[in-house]
Amino acid sequence: MLKISWSPKYAHSLPEGHRFPMEKYTLLPEQLLYEGTVSPQNFFEPSPIDPKWILNTHSESYFDKLQHLELSKSEIRATGFPLSKELVEREILIAGGSVQAALFALEYGIGMNIAGGTHHAFSDRGEGFCLLNDIAITANFLIENQLATRVLVVDLDVHQGNGTAELFRGRKDVFTFSMHGEKNYPHRKETSHLDIGLPDGTSDPSYLQILEKELSKILDSFYPDFVIYQSGVDVLATDQLGRLGMSIEGVRTRDRMILNFAKQIKSPIMCCMGGGYSKHLRDIIDGHAQLYRLAQDLYF
């Protein structure tokens, strides 16, 4: 059975004035239920992750400052959100959801989190609406518990996964692959194991051709036994921040490519949401919903 992490706190813990396009955390599960892609049994309520697994990824001093709401004004500004107890609790819950979704992936082949993909969180600071890096926490959890030995992070959000790159710099058991807008945020890029920077306006044919080629090349040097997929839909041409030129159909093909890739190499895969900032919410919801439809079609 497809298992999907979701909690009302994914949306309701966000500060007033920062809800759009965060309504997607409520509207996406409603859409999936309405169209019959999933049933209520597919969803599970995540539990907050044990702090020891956060400290396996983030520095103790940074996490302590988060818990006591002691970030400086400049550190808070970098995250993009006013700091609050509810926001920190939300990030801890999201990390728990991603780890639990990964455990379900080990059982069923795939697990999903209607949140997460917080790839701008570094070991010692937050950035870009990310306080804790659920991708890195999940990868470290799997490796530390000997549930995986080689984790591939496929980050296809339009923004480079700079925090994830920093967290796994020099690591040989985690391979970070980020394919993103070259001129987009963050302006100071980190170095992933593989970075592909795309020019503004890149559309379906070029994007998909590059992605197929790079996925094949990764296997020449790194053969994963677990995949984490950051499935941002801010690559859409309709996105207000993305600057790429992909269509809904192109994103569907992209997602199918990643799920088929994981199936072909017999690797479990955990999918987390990532960004999406189109003007019309229907474009965001449709872009994200495709991945859940594909998961049902390909795995169940």
From TrEMBL:
Q: Can the keyword Hydrolase be found in this entry's annotation? A: yes
Q: Where is the Histone deacetylase domain?
A: 18-279
Tell whether Nucleus is among the UniProt keywords: no
Which Gene Ontology terms describe the biological processes this protein takes part in? epigenetic regulation of gene expression
Q: Which UniProt keywords apply?
A: Hydrolase
* Entry-linked InterPro entries: HDAC_classIV, HDACs, His_deacetylse_dom, His_deacetylse_dom_sf, Ureohydrolase_dom_sf
Q: What is this protein called?
A: Acetoin utilization deacetylase AcuC-like enzyme
Per the UniProt record, the source organism is Algoriphagus aquaeductus
